[in-house]
Amino acid sequence: MVEKTAVVVGARGMIGRYTVNSLEQQNDWNIIAVSRKKPEYATRAEHISVDLEDPVDAERKLGGLSHVTHVFYSALNGSIAAENVAGNLELVRNSIGVLAKASNKLERVVLGQGGKYYGCHLGPHRTPSLETDPRHLPPNFYYAQQDFVVEAQRGQNWTYALVRPEAVVGNVSGIPLNVAGQIAAYALICKHLEVPFHYPGPDAAFKAYNKFTDAHLLGRFLHWVATAPVAANQAYNVTGDSGLRFSNIWPSFTRYFGVRPGEVMPFSLVSHMADKEDVWQDIVRKYDLRKTKLSDFGDWVFGDWILGRTWDTILEDTKRIKAGFTEVMDSEESFISTFNEMRAERLIP
Ligand SMILES: NC(=O)c1ccc[n+]([C@@H]2O[C@H](COP(=O)([O-])OP(=O)(O)OC[C@H]3O[C@@H](n4cnc5c(N)ncnc54)[C@H](OP(=O)(O)O)[C@@H]3O)[C@@H](O)[C@H]2O)c1
C-alpha cells in the first residue's frame, strides 16, 4: 500500500533521476516528478511540468498538493556558478515554499547541496571538509537556500535534511554538471580524430586528491536521509570511497575507450570543443547512436573546472556512516558502470 508521497523537484536532472529511481525500488512511494521538461528516462512517476521561475505557475500547479509527505529538492538554475543566488533561491521559494504551505502531512524536506558549500569552487579550502565547517564569504546559493528552508521549518512539524555530495557520477543527458559525460565525449572525440587522450588540465590537477559520489548510491542515501529519524535537521556529506587522483584513473579511462594514451597537457575544453559538433555527429552516425548533440554531454565550463582544479576536494563521510548509512562505492567502478549505462542507452558506442 502506498503510504508516502514524494515530490522530486528537478526530477529530469542528475540527482533527480537517481532520486526517482531509488524511490521506485520501494513499493510504498507515490512519486511526483517536477521539472519544466518531461524526464527522458522511463519512470512510473507522475510528471508535473512547472516553471519554478514563475511564482504564478508554481502556485497553480503545486499549491493544491495537500498530501505530500516528502520533498526532495535538486533543481538547478544555470550551471556551476555558486554566485547565482537570486535565480536558485527563487526555485526553492517556488517549490519548497509552496509545498510546505500546501501540505499539513509534510514530514521531511531534503535539500540537495554539494561540495561548493565548503568553497571547493574557489580554490584551496579546509579539507577534509566537515559538516560543521564555517561558511565562506558569500555569495553562495546553498547558504541562501538553506537559510530559507531553516526559516520555513521553524515552528513546523516537518524536519529537513541537507545533503552534500561531490561531483556526481551518473548518466543523464542534456544537463550541465556531468563529469562522466564530459570524459566520455572528450575521449570519443580524441579516438575518432586519432589523437592522444591527453589529460587537459595542469599536472597539479592531475595529481590533486578528489572524491566522487556514485549516483545510485546517492539515490539510496537520499531515501535513507528522508526517512531516518536520526537525520532530522542534520547536514551530511556523501561520497563513495576514500577518493582518488585523476592520475590513478586516467589509464583506466584510456583503456575503456580504446584511445591512444596521452600526457598531461593543459588546454581549454570550452574552446577546443566549440568546433566539434560535426565530429560528434560523425560519431553518432558511424555507430548508429541515439541522436544527441555534443552539448548533451554537459557544460564544458564544468569540464574545465573539474579537470582543472589544482587543489584537493575531500568531503569527510564519517558523520553519515556513524549515523547508519554505511554503503560505499569504489570511484573507478562508479565511472565504469556509468559508461556501461551510457552504452546500454546507446549514448556512446
Ligand atoms: N551534478 C553534480 O555533479 C552535482 C554535484 C554536487 C552537487 N550538485 C548540486 O545538486 C543540485 C542539482 O544538481 P544537478 O546536477 O542534479 O542539476 P541538473 O542535472 O541540472 O538538474 C536540474 C533540474 O532542475 C530542473 N529545473 C531547472 N530550472 C527549472 C525551472 N525554472 N523550473 C522547474 N525545474 C527546473 C531541470 O529540469 P528542466 O530543465 O526540465 O526544468 C532539472 O530537472 C545543484 O544544487 C547542484 O549544484 C550537483
Quick description:
By secondary structure, the protein is an alpha/beta fold.
Explain this structure to me?
The chain is of the alpha/beta class and 349 residues long. The chain is built from 13 helices and 13 strands. The strands form four sheets. Strands 3-2-1-4-5-6-11 form a seven-stranded parallel β-sheet, sandwiched between helices. A two-stranded parallel sheet has the order 7-10. Strand 4, helix 3 (85-102) and strand 5 (108-112) form a beta-alpha-beta unit. The termini are far apart. The site of NADP nicotinamide-adenine-dinucleotide phosphate has 28 residues, from helix 1 and strand 7.
What keyword list fits this structure?
single chain, about 350 residues, alpha/beta, Rossmann fold, 2 domains, two-stranded parallel ribbon, 13 helices, globular, binds NADP nicotinamide-adenine-dinucleotide phosphate
- CATH topology label of the largest domain: Rossmann fold
Give the tally of β-strands.
13
Task: Name the bound molecules.
Answer: NADP nicotinamide-adenine-dinucleotide phosphate
Structural class: alpha/beta
Chain-averaged pLDDT:
97
Alpha-carbon Rg, integer: 20 Å
Number of domains: 2
Shape: globular
Order of helices and strands: EHEEHEHEHEEHEHEEHEEHEHHHHH
CATH architecture descriptor of the largest domain: 3-Layer(aba) Sandwich
Uncertain spans, ≥5 residues at pLDDT below 50? Answer: none
**Helix segment count?**
13
End-to-end gap: 41 Å
The share of residues in helices is 25-40%
Name the strands of the widest sheet in spatial order.
Answer: 3-2-1-4-5-6-11
Strand content: 15-25%
Q: What's the story with the biggest beta sheet? A: 7 strands, parallel
